[in-house]
Structure formats: C-alpha cells, structure tokens
Prior knowledge:
Helices cover 26% and strands 23% of the residues. It is of the alpha+beta class. The chain has a single domain (46-227), classed as Peptide deformylase (Peptide Deformylase), CATH 3.90.45.
Amino acid sequence: MRQPADPTIWCPPARMQVLPLQDATQNLHSNLILHWHLAPALATSQDMSEFDFLSGIDAVPPTPILIAPQPVLREVTRDVRPEDIAFIREQLPGMFSAMYKAPGIGLAAPQVGLGMRFALVDVAEEDAPREPMLLINPEIISDSDQLAAREEGCLSLPNQYAEVVRPESIRVRYRNLAGETIEHDASGLLATCIQHEMDHLDGILFVDHLSTLKRNMIMRRLAKEQKLGRR
Ligand SMILES: [Zn+2]
C-alpha cells in the first residue's frame, strides 16, 4: 500500500475468508499445518531479530512489483506451511527493499508473483525508526463497529488513489518466521494497511471496494498511463 493522505470517517465491516489449501499435496502437509495450528505459543510482539538484513537493505536489489491487471494479483493465495519458511526468508530482503524504495507501507506476496499467504507492513514515518512487520497466514479475529474512510493507494496500481471505508481498528492473528502465533491490536493507518494487504492475499484490490463506475475509471486511467510509460 502507498502512504495515503487524509483519514476521515467510516461503513460496512471487512470480509473474512477461511481458505482451503488448494493443491494436490494437501494431505501430505495436513499434519504439519495441524501441528502449527495447535501450537499454543503466543508471542507478545514481533521478534526484531527476524529483520537483521534491514541494516543493509538499501543495497539490496528490489524485487519487481507486478502492476494490475496482472492475473496473479487476482488469485487467492494458499496458506504458508512450515516448509515454506526458508523460501520466504530468502524473498524478504528483495521484498522489503522494493517496499521501502517505492516508497510504500505494505507489500503482499502476490504483488511479487508469490501465491502464498504473507505480507509485509511498515507504517513508520519516513524519518522515524523502521517498524517492520511480517504477517504469515494472517486472520482478522475481531474488528470495530466504528469505520474509517482513508485514502488508499497501491504499489500495483501506481498513481491511483481513492477513499476506502474499513473498520477503524482490528485484532489480527498471524505467525512469525519462528512459527509463533502473534496477536496484534491495530488501529488507524496500521489497521487500514493490514486490511489492504490481507485483501491482496484473497485477490482483492482496493478499487474493488469502490463503485463499478469509479473502479473502471481508475483501471482505465492506469492502463492509459502504463501505455504511456508513466509510473
Ligand atoms: Zn496494494
């Protein structure tokens, strides 16, 4: 997600989806998944040692970000499994580099062509210390009745912005690289950003929250700008 401009007010609650594993190896991995799901460890915060590579992130080549209407942006991702972690670890430096260079405040796996359920977020101000989050298999376990409208943008829809209404605060549960469960209360910009990134994991773009008319207008404008070679 790109840094939006102004927050304002509220509307309908965010959707939640529980998605089945979608490939033929489902049975093979089901025991591992079950084990993960039963693991009671509840970490209180993100383990920052997971992000040691960030000290040299400026020198890391950014992973190319896919631009809509790339079909992979419309696919529903599959859950991350314990055996995916080594691969994800390898992807992180390039993905964080891409997000920070854009600059953006969130990047979901499908935006770099990966059909897995994880996303990066960092809503820290540009001159403040970084606050990286990696959300693996995130799920929203509660959200507020109070809604907020914020202007959103997306690294996969460059230069396009629109106001989207979502719950003002959420409680999200996810895994870290160590497989620990983390629950995090988020509000304001962070809540918006996490919901935006989680939408990507279900093949949903922020324009899907707008009227058909508005969405078509934005998609046409994006196509035109891309054709002209603008960013
Ligand atoms: Zn986005």
